[in-house]
Write a structure and sequence with these properties.
about 425 residues; mainly alpha; globular
């Protein structure tokens, strides 16, 4: 009789890291991997502006094909689409099978998934980061509701958004599923999607956050206003979860119809997917934070209010097409996102996100201490190669010894479909 595998088994956790399970949603993992790589890319550039504000002028002169780096904050919206899809899939499957949602189990599993590595990061931040007196706001996941100048570990605002979503959405979903028809819920979410666009526009117009926005704290005026009023608040970011929720509904309740639809309209779906990729590329290239760019006030505000929602809708189309499409660009997208190379990076994404700012800031500190006269591009290259490599290495260690073991302790509840546990990650 084989011995039971302990949660802390290094060999077993290594296998989980590199070997996808048969029912893993590989295209979703690929999107997660690309998202964290984009996060690393933007921060390897953005952190330089803290140490050398004059470097920002070089950023503004970057060619169009590099604009995706400076718009890399859009990668957080990809994470929100993925969370909306995966969490909704879990909850909808549970409701479909049992007629209810067990909130205690849901929140316990989220706690075991997120808190162990997060507490380690908070401990490191308490030793190294400013504003440590506000660590309590991170523990309560309300740090994004405080003024930006007080943020402890500022990059964790997105984790607060996620937790606020986890707290509110299951309750709203259960209430909605019990009290309203699917058609009513569909139109309510669609109106909600448009409502979030309107909220963003009103915030932009009221606080005069006109393009181009200030994105580099020490190089322009208005950075904290952008963060405080529109960048980190749930009422301006929850809209990014909705496309994933839409997709989860069809994935759970109309899977056979979805398969048939993608088979009947293979060519049309391929063109729609191509257009979605084009939308993503265009939004990545528009320099909303380039202080040398000019935008018409009204049109610029409409664009900035809606671009994240258009972006997340396009990402959702690409994700679902990669899961269900088998023709043309859908097939190519699926093969790329399902790459075995991307899979381990996706598994390390959470720990990488938590710890990479410490690493990149540390690399730049070393550069400016020992080689301050290096050209800007060499500094970025060193920070990118060293920062990305070390960040992934740190995430690898945290995954093996903290993150994955606590995930293993959650077990696999018999009442929950196997695929739901897997997509939860």
């Amino acid at each position: 009789m084989a011995k039971p595998v302990t949660p802390f088994s290094i060999s077993n956790n290594l296998k989980i890291l590199v070997n996808p399970m048969s029912d893993q949603l590989r295209a979703v993992d690929g999107l997660r991997a690309l998202s964290i790589l984009i996060v690393l890319s933007i921060h390897c550039v953005w952190f330089l502006s803290i140490f050398d504000p004059s470097a920002v002028e070089l950023f503004y002169q970057a060619p169009v094909w590099l604009h995706w780096v400076f718009n890399g904050d859009l990668s957080l919206d990809i994470f929100f689409v993925i969370s909306g899809f995966l969490i909704s899939t879990i909850l909808m499957k549970e409701y479909r099978n049992s007629g209810t949602i067990r909130f205690g189990r849901f929140y316990q599993r989220r706690f075991m998934r997120l808190m162990p590595a997060y507490l380690l990061a908070l401990g490191l931040g308490f030793l190294a980061a400013p504003n440590r007196e506000y660590i309590w706001s991170n523990l309560l996941y309300i740090n994004n509701l405080l003024p930006a100048s007080t943020h402890f570990m500022p990059w964790t605002w997105s984790l607060a958004i996620e937790e606020q979503f986890y707290f509110l959405f299951p309750v709203l979903l259960l209430w909605g599923m019990r009290c309203f028809s699917a058609k009513t819920l569909f139109w309510s979410m669609l109106l909600g999607f448009l409502g979030f666009v309107l909220i963003r526009f009103l915030v932009i117009w009221h606080f005069e956050l006109f393009l181009p926005i200030c994105w580099y704290e020490k190089s322009c005026d208005g950075f904290f206003q952008v963060i405080d009023y529109i960048y980190v608040k749930p009422w301006t970011r929850f809209g990014s979860f909705l496309p994933g929720i839409f997709a989860a509904y069809f994935h759970v309740y109309h899977q056979e119809s979805l398969v048939a639809f993608y088979q009947r309209h293979r060519v049309g779906i391929a063109w729609v997917t191509f257009l979605a990729l084009l939308v993503v590329a265009v939004i990545f290239t528009i320099p909303v934070n380039n202080q040398h760019a000019t935008f018409p006030r009204l049109l610029g505000s409409i664009y900035y209010a809606s671009c994240r929602h258009l972006f997340t809708l396009a990402i959702c189309i690409i994700m679902i097409s990669s899961l269900y499409g088998d023709y043309g660009i859908c097939r190519w997208s699926s093969k790329f996102l399902s790459s075995r190379l991307l899979y381990p990076i996706a598994q390390l994404a959470y720990s990488t996100y938590l710890f990479h700012p410490f690493v990149i800031a540390g690399v730049y500190t070393g550069i400016f201490q020992f080689a301050p006269d290096l050209p800007v591009l060499q500094k970025i290259a060193i920070a990118t190669v060293g920062g990305v490599s070390i960040s992934l290495l740190v995430a690898f260690v945290v995954f093996l010894f903290i993150e994955r073991p606590f995930m293993n302790m959650r077990g696999r509840p018999t009442a929950e479909p196997k695929s739901a546990v897997l997509v939860e990650g």
